[in-house]
Amino acid sequence: MQVKIITDSSCDLPVEFLEKYEIDMVPLVVNLENEEYFDKETIQSNDVYDAMRNEKVPKTAQAPAYRLQETFTSYAEKQHPIIFIAMSSKLSGTYQTAVLMKEEVLEKFPNASIAVIDSYAGSGGHGLLVKYAAELAHANNNLEDMERKLNHVRNHIEHIFTVDNVEYLYRGGRLSKASAVIGGLLNIKPILTLPQGKIHPVGKVRGQKKLYTKILELMTERGENLEEQTIIIVHADNSEGADHLKKLIEEKTNCHSFIIHTIGSAVGAHVGPGALGVFFFNQLSIE
Fold this sequence. Notes:
Layout: E1 4-8, H1 15-20, E2 24-26, E3 29-32, E4 35-38, H2 45-53, E5 59-61, H3 65-76, E6 82-86, H4 94-108, E7 114-118, H5 123-138, H6 143-153, E8 157-162, H7 166-171, H8 177-186, E9 188-193, E10 200-206, H9 208-222, E11 230-235, H10 239-253, E12 257-262, H11 265-271, E13 276-281
Parallel strand pairs: 1-2, 1-6, 6-7, 11-12
Antiparallel strand pairs: 3-4, 3-5, 8-9, 8-13, 9-10, 11-13
Helix pairs in contact: 2-11, 3-4, 5-6
């Protein structure tokens, strides 16, 4: 029986891809103006971006425990093996909650086959790991082999991303007020990565042209055989920036396989409209 892939809505992959590989998605929660919504179900990213432009401050929460439990139980009842791939545990409590729900389900269904993976990733990086998992499942890898391979590959996913307005990082507690004010006045763009699942700044530049130059520089330094990869580009209502970055990457690396997608509302609530990210592997071998 083919392993079922389940993930949370931090995973920024197109609906068409999720449907093709029959991947289930459990939503993260977005709170906006005292109303609670399910990411990608009852609220969409543009709703959040429009609210942020109007000075609203959305909050987010992990995937609800009951949704995880219901989903795991539905497959345990059928003795269908599953792997749940969660957003980085450094950014969300979803992984820890999923581990607890796994234990609860196993108490009732002790023969169930359930694996829970901390992706060490978010957004498109999370998407890369889910994509890889779907391909492994489609090739009929068993649960144990998939868990081993995913735990290896998660250490080799590169995240390079930036935000259009540093004020959003300040609101989310990622940047001091002084840095936000200075950054806004000087048009300074932070460049961020996600080593071991935790946000880490790697530089800052002034202006869009230098921003793209620095992103390409980091990609060529860190990526392995980029021309052989599928590179994921995500954006927060910034399709023009995503298309421009894709064109530059094609010219620089000769890569022609891309997935371009919008950042979901839960992740988007922290990075804000205009954000842009690119995700790829720094190692292609799995052993």
